[in-house]
Amino acid sequence: MAKFLIVEARFYGGLNDMLLSGARAALKAAGHESETITVPGALEIPAAVALADQSGMYDGYVALGVVIRGETYHFEIVAGESARGLMALSMDGIAIGNGILTVEDEAQALVRADPAQKDKGGEAAKAAIAMLELRTRLA
Ligand SMILES: Nc1c(NC[C@H](O)[C@H](O)[C@H](O)CO)[nH]c(=O)[nH]c1=O
Ligand SMILES: CC(=O)[C@@H](O)COP(=O)(O)O
What we know:
The protein is α/β, with parallel strands linked by helices. Helices cover about 55% and strands about 20% of the residues. It contains 5 helices and 4 strands, in the order βαβαβαβαα. It has helices at about 15-30, 45-55, 75-90, 105-115, 120-139, and strands at about 5-10, 35-40, 60-70, 95-105. A 4-stranded parallel sheet has the order 2-1-3-4, with helices on both faces. α3 (about 75-90) links the parallel β3 and β4. α1 runs parallel beside α4 and α1 (about 15-30) packs across α5 (about 120-139). The longest helix is centred in the last third of the chain and has 19 residues, at about 120-139. The two termini are about 15 Å apart. Bound molecules: the ligand Nc1c(NC[C@H](O)[C@H](O)[C@H](O)CO)[nH]c(=O)[nH]c1=O and ligand LTPLIIQW.
């Protein structure tokens, strides 16, 4: 059994709840424990993962968030930089699954957050599990 930390940016409560449900279900189905922390937005997720990993308390991480395009360039920053930050941590050997939705509108987010539809929360959890297993095998 491994211990995962779910780091969620609760920008859209109902959508976040759906992502969280899918991620927790996937981790539990694989026999792993999980805890959840909340950060203000997707931009804060990579730093939260880095800080949590310094504690040595967790084996892997699942990043959950919803980024919906608005009127300005900020969407590109939030979507791109949160993904880049997670990728950098992943390249350092930290087992992470990226479940940050980057979508045009709430309808697209709903389909992807829903565990009964695209279940991106569960998908991110399964990716984190797979990367931890890979790291363990290659260690
Ligand atoms: N617009 C969205 C944000 N924006 C907030 C940023 O993530 C960040 O918290 C802020 O810029 C302060 O550093 N965050 C989301 O998760 N989703 C959005 O749609
Ligand atoms: C992704 C965002 O930061 C976005 O929701 C902000 O909206 P806006 O670009 O209209 O300020």
